[in-house]
Amino acid sequence: MDVSGWVWAGTAVFVVGLIFFDFFAHVRTPHAPSFQESARWSIFYIALAMVFGVVVGMAWGWGPGTEYFAGYITEKSLSVDNLFVFLIIMTKFAVPREYQQKVLLVGVVIALILRTVFILAGAAAIEQFSWVFYIFGGFLVYTAIKLAREHHDAEHPDPREERDGMAVRLFKRLVPTVEEYHGDRLTVRIDGKRFFTPMLVVMVAIGSTDVLFALDSIPAIYGLTEEPYIVFTANAFALLGLRQLYFLIGGLLERLIYLSQGLAVILGFIGIKLVLHALHVNELPFINNGEPVEWAPEIPIWLSLTVILGTLVVATVLSLLKTRSDASIASKTES
């Protein structure tokens, strides 16, 4: 897949333009978006991502096009899990609902910047060292096992969901902050001295949290495609609709009780796929004398896409059936 510098530049300008549009059209004036507004713009961004995938397929072939769709769906599903953590952070910082859009948009910008760095670093590593696939694959399998045991619980949050994580504690130690919100302002002057408000602190919390998410998502998508352009665009389109999705499915997040297990299956599958690919192109001297392992199969992208979609459907259906059953039992017990 040959992507020219002009295409990269045009795509980057387009993504930045969408962020500016989002800010001036929705975020600049603080308000709590309605369900209809969130649904309308969520559909817009999902449709935009689908159209872009068709363009990729028509321009470079349906092999790269299918890789894009598999990467986008994977990143979108992982972002839903991220939203639960963002919800906990927002709750712990007591961010007023009308200001949450601004926090999320800044979080998206930070995430895009961080992930672009990870994407470029990952592409460089893969180009120079094929054994990186062993590391990516092993890390994803480890992450899958860890995620399978995870239960989002507001009473006992994951360490990475703590309000005052390491980045936030360091930020508070280095700069003067106040505990009260002053509208959606990031700084405030009190008695002639400049202080940073919790609005900026919560942005730091969400931005630093996304570093951990990127460690999962970037190796996952590199397990589906080795093309940096597809990795970047799949991440960009998955993140662009994150703000609207947050307000659209905020109430549904608590019902997706098997989401972590479903994502664990997806990450585990991609991790195994990466390890098999590493064996297929093996260059490590202590494995098969530095020669490729012939029996290691290459998992086709259509199978990857089928497994990803099928797992998400099963996890969602089982979650909704379980929560409905629990609600029915609870209502009968009360009566």
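The above is record 1. Record 2 follows with the same two-line structure.
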Amino acid sequence: MTEKALRLGTRRSKLALAQSGQVADAVSQVTGRPVELVEITTYGDVSREHLAQIGGTGVFVAALREALLRGEVDFAVHSLKDLPTAQHEDLVVAAVPVREDPRDVVVARDARKLTDLPRGARIGTGAPRRMAQLNAYARTHGLEIETVPIRGNVDTRIGYVHSGELDAVVLAAAGLNRVGRIDEVTDFLSVDMVLPAPGQGALAIECRAANTAQDVELVAALAELDDPFTRVAVTAERSLLAALEAGCSAPVGALADLLADGQIVKEMRLRGVVGTTDGSTLVQLSTTGPVPETHEAALAFGRELATDMLAQGAAGLMGERAQ
């Protein structure tokens, strides 16, 4: 007799279905059970408002979590950067798989790089974080650009470039990789130029906290997909975000790199940035130290850098503060 299929809750977007499909295959391999996708519409998918207006934090997550708690799905896959920083008391992130490329990328007309765009180029992005850093870079490098707030899925955003409405759009490399459209990228933005969103490129596999024998078994099986280095990095990044009391639509960038000496990972460097969306003011700092060996140590790593950033005036640059 074949075992009952595990039900994976996912958003309906092409990107969500692509990344959930990849996780479903991996879960099927470690559990030996079939996995079926259960498509769930979230508030963030149906609302046409800009993310900053609807609060950003959790708008793509709440419906998936409700389905989990009601037992309609066994586990859910989220883009980690969409998850609120506070852990849900009845749920657990059982796995953070190996992270995709965390960088931001440009898709521009005429295969142009960011620095080759015409004067006054209109660049679309849904993220105040990207606006702040792109505008700051433009100011210091003599570029004239206009950042334009946009929403929509990958097709919609790239469509603005093809239609000529925008000169370029900035997207996450990870998303384009997962939907098979990375060859449309005209410029990969160095993390020295634009720091990604905390957790960008990483996925979170969430399930119910271990209350029953089945839950315990599932948590253990999903944990096989966890990458400890990715987890420690994103934990530090999200701790920085939480300590800044910023929602996921606030103009905060963060990236933790693991620094290796040959094959041995020795240290972790955490970089953080917050700025006004016009790019006139940025607070950008970094810290390097031994790789945190516990969850608490990773949290402390992020909190310490956030404290330094707040001391440099980061709080006044945030605009929307998380409620």
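The chain has ten helices and 13 strands.
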